[in-house]
Amino acid sequence: MVGVPVLGLLGILEAGRSIPAPLSIGGDWTLEFDPAAHCATGTAGLRQPALSISQSGTQALITLNDGHATTLEATINGAALTATSPTAGIAATISGRLGERTLEGQMHFDGCAPVAFRAVRQAPKKRG
Hints:
Blueprint: H1 3-16, E1 27-33, E2 51-56, E3 59-64, E4 71-77, E5 80-84, E6 88-95, E7 102-109, E8 115-121
Antiparallel strand pairs: 1-2, 1-8, 2-3, 3-4, 4-5, 5-6, 6-7, 7-8
């Protein structure tokens, strides 16, 4: 009686082995971009760390450190990150190993031209 559910569970676990986990991007990120690309409604208002990412599976919320806590809803598809809000958007590529992860792509804000950026994840703060 117990054997059938256990066999079913083992079958599900075996089938799931081929499904890769999404790339981990959660944490605080420092943003680098061309200073000439500042826009009053966009990059000029960002303070470092400029991005805070909260991730669950392939979904994430990106909060900008812009004084308004602008939040973008993000999706991770392989190494591609896309994020949108009513006033901003991000299209980026995730690269690097877990401890050396980077994001590179473009951000756009209402009323501004797209801005190329590179972001580096900050080391987690040590508790103590």
